Amino acid sequence: MQQGTNLPKVGSYNRSVVLETIQASDGISRVRIATVTGLTAQTVSVIVRRLLEEGLVVEDGSAPSRGGKRPTILRVSAEAGYAVGVHFDPKALSCVLADLAGRPVARLHVPVRPGARPDGVIRQMARAARRILREAGVPDGKVLGVGLACPGPLDEDGVMVSPPRLAHWDRVPIKALLCEYTGFPVTVDNDATAAAIGERWAGIARSTPSFAYLYLGTGIGGGLFLDNQVYRGRSLNAAEIGHMTVDPQGPGCYCGNRGCVEAVCCPSAIEAAMGDLRDHAAICAAAASGEPAALRVIEQVAERLADAAVSVVNLLDIDLLVLGGPALREVGEIYREVIARAVSGRSLARRLHPVRVETSPTAADAAAMGAVTLVFHATYAPRLGTLLSG
């Protein structure tokens, strides 16, 4: 959990620290907030009063007392705001509507027509966002914005820059167009970073200071939280775990390297390794049922993912590695077991602290849920830039 500061002129940052602390808990008292954040009791009291007035937080019962007045429990007001998350995969759009507590209210999946032009697909996203709000009966005034998770690379203005699996999408201003077509503010990030933010906001990494997210979809990517801050890198495209070399003699990758994680572990690579015309879903189902040939291919892929995972853990000295994304399908536990075994047996700091390897509980919808929380994170999460800006 983040620490607040009692220096002057940091009210916005401290407000975000307190709100995040309340959101990450399952009910918390003012006294406990002060203990967790390092803020004074008076500072916490002032901030909480304002959050209550704004309707972002509610008082919800009392905690047991050890003598004296029973402390009042605070929770985020789930109905104070909503966000729509859109995950753009080359084959489909996934839409999620969630409340401020990060709980999904509605879901919508729409196929993308092969070869569809960018403007048509972005208009399809806008229609899906409007439809899910209409069907859920959420008024525009309650909508904080739309989050978009999509393939990268992306620049700081939300413009797609030569996405390798999407012909005709180079220099498409996807953020600006979706904002225009929906009428809502739009927050955009690559799908793996979005999934990591979702895990931090409403998943298993809510109180973990440093973790990595390994995202398996059409391609393979990653997201990072380091010391409670999402890390995006110089050009906002950090954590490309899919382009770590794990087989120097392996097939060439579109990035220019050979034997990248993505080149040997993505769904199309798994289909090529099987060589029997079955698609990825069928291969995963067969492996999960114990078919020897399919299981052998999936276990080989898991070993390559494990090689990359050990390198990530050694490089970053993190506490948690989360696996997520639609490509996990029925084989998520196979991947998790192989990677966990490798991390526990081969990471350099294994005798100093354990590193958990977990599968996201929202694995299939990880990017869409992450897209929702992009909005919440951008609006409410404490960012060190608040302290450093003039």
From TrEMBL:
Pfam families registered for this protein in UniProt: HTH_24, ROK
Similarity remark: Belongs to the ROK (NagC/XylR) family.
Species in which this protein is naturally found: Nonomuraea maheshkhaliensis
Protein name: ROK family transcriptional regulator
SUPFAM superfamilies assigned: Actin-like ATPase domain, Winged helix' DNA-binding domain
Classification via InterPro entries: ATPase_NBD, ROK, ROK_cs, WH-like_DNA-bd_sf, WH_DNA-bd_sf
Membrane spanning stretches: none
